[in-house]
Write a structure and sequence with these properties.
Number of strands: 0
Structural class: mainly alpha
Largest sheet: none
Low-confidence stretches: none
Order of helices and strands: HHH
Distance between the termini: 26 Å
Length: 78
């Protein structure tokens, strides 16, 4: 999974006409939505392959291998 940092910013728009301020806010608000790759990744994470899908066996084999590896390493540290 892609790790995404928390980004924050502040912008104050003064001395511009209301039409210009609206354009500033429109451009700034574009960054409030996740980008296309973020939307695709979220969709993939939330809907894994179903029985009968071509990638079903490979997906769950890889997932189970990762989970077993994590469990094994957790036991080593305890």
């Amino acid at each position: 999974m892609v790790s995404v940092g928390n980004r924050q910013s502040y912008m104050e728009v003064t001395g511009f006409s209301s039409e210009v301020r609206e354009q500033f806010y429109k451009v700034a608000s574009v960054n409030l939505c996740s980008n296309i790759s973020g939307q695709i990744l979220a969709s993939l994470v939330m809907s894994p392959p179903k029985v009968g899908d071509e990638s079903y066996d490979a997906h769950f084999c890889e997932r189970d291998g990762i989970l077993k590896s994590l469990a094994r390493r957790a036991k080593v540290r305890n």
